[in-house]
Design a protein that fits this description.
It is a single chain. The chain is of the alpha+beta class and 1218 residues long. It has 39 helices and 25 strands. The protein starts with 33 loop residues before the first helix and ends in a 9-residue tail after the last helix. Its main location: membrane. Keywords: Lyase, Membrane, Nucleotide-binding, Transmembrane, Transmembrane helix. This is Guanylate cyclase domain-containing protein.
């Protein structure tokens, strides 16, 4: 970068100042030379009438293209503060769009005027051709609409046939499964009674609830009840049997279902057969045959329904009689009617919950009773019927999961032979109950599909009375039709009509061969004007277009912006420059950007800048502010140029307010994508008003630029401002007062120093007066206030801001969900690749499933499970070739929901410590992800970029990459485990050391044998949460096999335990493994000869050091990042000391402790990252930052400790472990 110190107009005496060309002090030519004066006069007087065709190439020249910004380092602002005046490159905004459009319209009108002299024959042919195009266009549009609509109608019919057929098949199969399930259940009961030599009806089934669980799931039944057949002869014997066994039966049912008797109310038992009535259960009349209620599932709340005779209900008695007549095993279904069984076995809330997935479903209807016979001999239907199984079944469940998610709008009517009808609307897997009665839509009868749900094969099935046969009638409704009858035919028709209209418009543009040459010239002129407008403001553009010398000599146009001759000798044209006496310039710097960007990937840095600057650019167009440039992370804009505005200062302050608000909003929004601390980024804005000199320095890549003392002062005002605040100079403040905006100002205490200016008084914008000592003219008066919406927004924005702690945690959760979802997609893609290649991703030859079950226990000690070597998958070329793009993978909603729930729960398990909190865990996770992304192969194994690379070369490159990174790059499950360990490693941390927990005799210390207490506790809490049934779907999606979950747990255990850097045994174990793995390692070419055990050992130790480095990554990052987390850790340790949970004041040893921490842990750890050779440039970056921070701490550490101690005295005491 070349910095030029130019003499501006303020440095020239007024009498010698030429406002149009400040550089004439450097480049002098003879003002009184008659030849030069006459040439300049002629150039100004020439009229613009024609632009030669070569302008088209000039407009597309690289020298005319718009450049976004000139890249400058942040240290450039220090030069500005020192008074060095730099080149300010400028990019133009779109303030002159309207003028350009007007100019273009004038050119078109000129063409039209010339076209009046065209030949009459040409006009005649033009009219004929236009008429022909119109007729053809109308015919094509009509035919297109007709045929496309016809195709959609065919597609609708075909789709309905396919989906309704699939729905019918699914419904029939579902009914078959239900029927088979009930028959199987009846067989199990019959066989069990025979196997245990029990005599009906005195059969006791201890595990009836367990047997019934399966049938309840597949049928959607709300309860299952066994009704044994009791004759009049053995009635009294059975009642005595029931008196002796009813308590045991009820107890067994409750214990199987609930594991306790909490919900049982042991009252209401009747020692006689009962029948239901309005007043409760009363004694049934004498009958020849009884079917009393016996076993049941779910268990009843009381004994009240025990011995209820189902045959006392006429509808149900008829079904029982039908079963006797038919002598078959098929279940029979009652008509839909109210019943009371659900109220006996389910609470109202539980019953409602069973229907919650069916929006609009009623808990009163439609329900039916399903009765299944139980024969004495399960294989002989001629044997006596000894019992029936009765199950109240909700028809809602018969309409679930029948269609794909995308298919909606199928109307289904459930009818039975008992004269009942019920309506449902099926939308994908869901169904909506519409009501009773036949509600079929008129006009849709021809699409009806009949589905018989009565699947019996008995010849007398239909003739036997007492039961109902059900069927389903399907129709498409408007929602379904709208899926296929789309606006596409109309859109195509409109597009075709538009195409013909466009053809006509084009024809009008090129309407005359006579005027073809003039049309080309005008088009080239318009394009040239558009390019110039995008590069320069109005005044410069008008000078360029108005300079007629290039028309006579084509070379002059190129030389106008890119002179090839010596500028000291070729002074025939004046420079393109102007002087603007009253402008306001703004510098807006992103505070903390350097530290923030130091821990991000380049793509993340540019995502932030493009988003932020793009929004700022949009606001410049709406606010009529002139964008000057972007210098690094500093955005420069100005008002008062190129058009004078009296309220330029007010306009700039309003714009500064808008971008400050926008920055805060965008930073918070982007935090979910770019990670922790993004929301902390704020703008530091400095504004100064004064004169500037602006123009184009002709040369390579010429652009519009600003110069002058105003730019330097504005930069100084910005650099001495504060994050999140708008800082203005005295000159800007004076302009605001003149515009009745003095109430925006708060006088700043003290002054700032600017080179050549001395001490300058400055002001804050929009801050509360209680935060400043400003007085006098800056006091807000009632008459000076404006009650506009901007004023309200202004004061609301810069007033007291609410605490966004909860929002920050939510954003961190969102970011973590995004990170883990991306890795999860890679896991699924990798698993799919193994399946496509027909390979097994698990090299574990034998897996004890008992180990997986043991993982669900909560009494394990992770420290005992630390492995010296963890197996990672080997490289497989077939799998690599089958790998699909992970971004194309869709994660099921249920998995995403459980992932978010898990991370949110983990966040809630973190305590409110200053350092060991969820924010720090997210920071560690971000470091892990960065290091994983930086794992690369050495130069010897970099992929060849030439197009002649053979398949064998590609194979060796990928294989070498895999081996050099010890398999880490090829295994997304390993990467997920590393991020998982980073997320959970400080869960429930109490803010004190392990030694303090041991000293206090904490319960967790005793539980984990006084070793790695916090780390083991964090892992156990998190792992138990992960293994709970609540996250079963997430777990199954992450680890599809027992081998995967075992390996995932081993990786997570090793990584979390590696964060305990104090335990001597663990430290010695890691050091020994490091020496064994890396101390005597050979050349990279010898990797192929290494054993799998050796490679896996290296992978294991690299993973542990990766998590260790990430845990203290703030010490190996930008100084500001280190200072932030170092101060938080100090506050946490000091809080422990104040609470009596630490023996010594950390302030006494903090300085030397940090020095030792750098010397004996951080720097050696960074060197290990470098020596293992898999982290590429990141290892150098970490080591350089560590050494730099160590040097800075050595110089400033004692002063910083004193500042931290002083800040603590101003803060109220808090319990950091709450």
């Amino acid at each position: 970068m070349i910095l030029l110190d130019l003499i501006g107009p303020n440095d020239i005496p007024a009498k010698n100042r030429d406002k149009s060309s400040p550089t004439k002090v450097r480049v002098q030519y003879k003002q009184n030379d008659p030849t030069q004066e006459e040439t300049l006069t002629n150039l100004r007087k020439q009229r613009f009438s024609m632009i030669p065709s070569f302008l088209q190439s000039a407009a597309s020249s690289e020298k005319m293209r718009h450049l976004d910004s000139t890249s400058l380092d942040l240290d450039d602002h220090e030069d500005l503060r020192a008074g060095t005046r730099k080149i300010k490159s400028v990019s133009n905004n779109s303030d002159t769009d309207e003028e350009s459009s007007a100019a273009k319209r004038d050119e078109v009108q000129e063409i039209r005027n010339r076209s009046r002299n065209a030949d009459r024959h040409v006009q005649l042919w033009r009219s004929a051709l236009l008429s022909l195009i119109s007729v053809i266009g109308t015919a094509v549009c009509g035919l297109t609409f007709h045929f496309l609509h016809l195709e959609e109608q065919k597609a609708l019919n075909l789709a309905y046939d396919q989906f309704s057929e699939a729905l019918a098949e699914t419904a029939i199969r579902q009914q078959q499964d239900i029927s088979e399930g009930f028959r199987t259940f009846a067989t199990i009961i019959s066989d069990y009674a025979a196997a245990t030599n029990q005599t009906w009806p005195f059969v006791h089934l201890p595990k009836f609830g367990a047997y019934a669980e399966h049938i309840l799931k597949i049928s959607g039944a709300e309860a299952t009840v066994l009704f044994p057949l009791v004759t009049k002869e053995n009635k009294q014997t059975y009642l005595k049997y029931a008196d002796n066994n009813y308590e045991q039966i009820v107890y067994e049912a409750h214990m199987i279902e609930n594991g306790n008797l909490d919900d049982l109310n042991p009252v209401g038992y009747k020692s006689f057969f009962t029948v239901g009535s309005k007043t409760g259960f009363v004694e049934d009349i004498d009958r020849e045959v009884y079917f009393p209620l016996g076993h049941f599932s779910p268990p009843m709340f009381s004994y009240g329904a025990f011995n209820w005779n189902v045959a006392s209900v006429p509808d149900y008695a008829n079904i029982v009689e039908a079963i006797k007549v038919l002598k078959h095993t098929e279940p029979l279904i009652s008509k839909v009617r109210p019943y009371a069984t659900a109220e006996l076995t389910l609470s109202n809330e539980e019953h409602a919950a069973m229907h919650s997935e069916i929006e609009g479903s009623s808990t009163e209807f439609p329900h039916s009773f399903v009765f299944t016979p139980v024969y004495l001999d399960s294989e002989d239907t001629d044997s006596p019927i000894v019992a029936v199984i009765g199950s109240p079944m909700a028809w809602d469940f018969s309409f679930q999961n029948l269609l794909p998610e995308s298919v909606i709008g199928i109307h289904a009517i459930l009818k039975n032979s008992c004269g009942q009808s019920f309506n449902y609307e099926i939308n994908g897997p869901d169904a909506f109950y519409l009501g009773e009665g036949d509600m079929q839509h008129a006009g849709l009868v021809e699409h009806e599909r009949f589905v018989n749900l009565a699947l019996h094969t008995h010849p007398d099935f239909e003739a036997i009375q007492g039961h109902c046969m059900y069927s389903m009638h399907l129709y498409p409704d408007n929602k379904f039709a709208n899926l296929y009858l789309t606006p596409v035919p109309l859109l195509y028709t409109v597009c075709i009509a538009g195409s013909f209209a466009f053809m006509i418009a084009v024809f009008f543009v090129y309407n005359s061969f006579v005027h073809k040459r003039n049309e080309t010239l005008v088009a080239n002129a318009a394009r040239s004007n558009a390019v110039i407008t995008s590069l320069f403001p109005d005044n410069i553009r008008n000078k360029i277009i108005g300079d007629e010398s290039y028309r006579k000599n084509p070379r002059n146009f190129h030389e106008l912006l890119d002179p090839t001759s010596d500028p000291l000798t070729d002074l025939s044209r004046p420079p393109l420059a102007d002087y603007f006496a009253t402008t306001t310039v703004m510098f807006a710097d992103i505070c903390g950007f350097t530290a923030w960007s130091s821990v991000r990937e380049p793509s993340q840095v540019f995502t932030l800048l493009e988003t932020v600057y793009g929004e700022f650019d949009r606001l410049t167009k709406h606010s009529k502010v002139f964008k000057v440039e972007t210098v690094g992370d500093c955005y420069v804009a100005a008002t008062g140029i190129p058009t004078y505005r009296k309220d330029h200062a007010v306009l700039m302050v309003k714009y500064a307010h808008k971008i400050s608000c926008a920055m805060k909003h965008m930073a918070q929004t982007l935090e979910t994508k770019l990670g922790p601390d993004t929301a902390d980024l704020l703008l530091r804005i400095g504004i100064h008003s004064g004169p500037v000199t602006a123009g184009v320095i002709r040369g390579e890549k010429a652009r519009f630029q600003l110069f002058g003392d105003t730019m330097n002062v504005a930069a100084r005002v910005e650099s001495t401002g504060a994050a999140g605040r708008i800082h203005v100079s005295l000159d800007t403040a004076d302009h605001l007062r003149k515009c009745q905006k003095g109430h925006w100002l708060v006088k700043r205490e003290g002054t700032i120093i600017a080179k050549g200016k001395g001490d300058l008084q400055t002001y804050w914008i929009g801050q509360s007066a209680r935060n400043s000592t400003g007085t006098g003219s800056d006091t807000v008066s009632t008459s000076d206030r404006s009650n506009t919406s901007f004023e309200e927004s202004f004061h609301a924005t810069f007033g007291n801001q609410p605490d966004d702690t909860c929002d920050r945690e939510d954003r961190l959760v969102d970011w973590n969900v995004t990170v883990f979802t991306d890795i999860l997609k890679q896991i699924v893609a990798r698993r799919n690749a193994y399946a496509a290649a027909k390979k097994d991703s698990n090299d574990l030859s034998a897996v004890d499933l008992g180990i997986v079950e043991d993982m669900k226990k909560d009494d394990f000690k992770p420290l005992h499970d630390v492995r010296e070597t963890i197996w990672l998958p080997e490289f497989d070329q077939a799998v690599e070739d089958s790998q699909e793009d992970a971004h194309t993978i869709d994660i099921p909603t249920s998995v995403s929901t459980q992932l978010r729930d898990f991370i949110s729960t983990i966040a809630s398990l973190y305590r409110c410590n200053s350092f060991h909190n969820f924010e720090h865990a997210s920071h560690v996770t971000m470091s892990v992800i960065k290091l994983l992304s930086r794992i690369i192969a050495p130069t010897d194994f970099e992929m060849m970029e030439n197009e002649n690379e053979s398949d064998d070369d590609s194979f060796h490159v990928k294989a070498n990459l895999h081996d050099h990174t010890y398999g880490i790059t090829s295994d997304p499950l390993t990467q997920f485990a590393c991020a998982f360990a980073a997320l959970i490693h400080d869960v429930d941390h109490e803010g004190v050391t392990n030694a303090q927990l041991v000293k206090e005799g904490a319960v967790v210390a005793a539980k984990y044998e006084n070793r790695s207490v916090a780390e083991q506790n964090s892992f156990v809490l998190s792992w138990n949460l992960f293994m709970s049934d609540r996250f079963a779907t997430l777990r199954e999606h992450l680890c599809a096999t027992p081998a995967e979950i075992i390996r995932f747990r081993e990786l997570a255990v090793n990584a979390v335990m590696a964060t305990d850097i104090v335990d001597k045994d663990l430290k010695n174990l890691r050091n020994n493994r490091w020496d064994k793995a890396f101390k005597n390692q050979g050349n990279i070419e010898e990797l192929d000869n290494e054993s799998r055990e050796s490679i896996n050992r290296k992978a294991t130790i690299v993973i542990e050091h990766l998590i260790q480095a990430s845990d203290v990554s703030h010490t190996m990052q930008h100084w500001h990042v280190y200072r932030k987390w170092n101060e938080r850790l100090f506050h946490e340790m000091h809080a422990a000391y104040v609470q009596g949970r630490s023996d010594s004041d950390p302030a006494l040893t903090w300085y030397k402790g940090e020095m030792g921490f750098f010397d004996f842990y951080i720097i050696p750890l960074a060197k290990k990252l470098e020596s293992c050779g898999v982290f590429g440039k990141s290892s150098d970056e970490f080591l350089n930052y560590a050494r730099s921070n160590r040097e800075e701490w050595e110089i400033r550490g004692e002063e910083i400790v004193a500042e931290m101690v002083a800040s603590l005295k101003k803060r109220p005491a808090t319990n950091s472990s709450v």
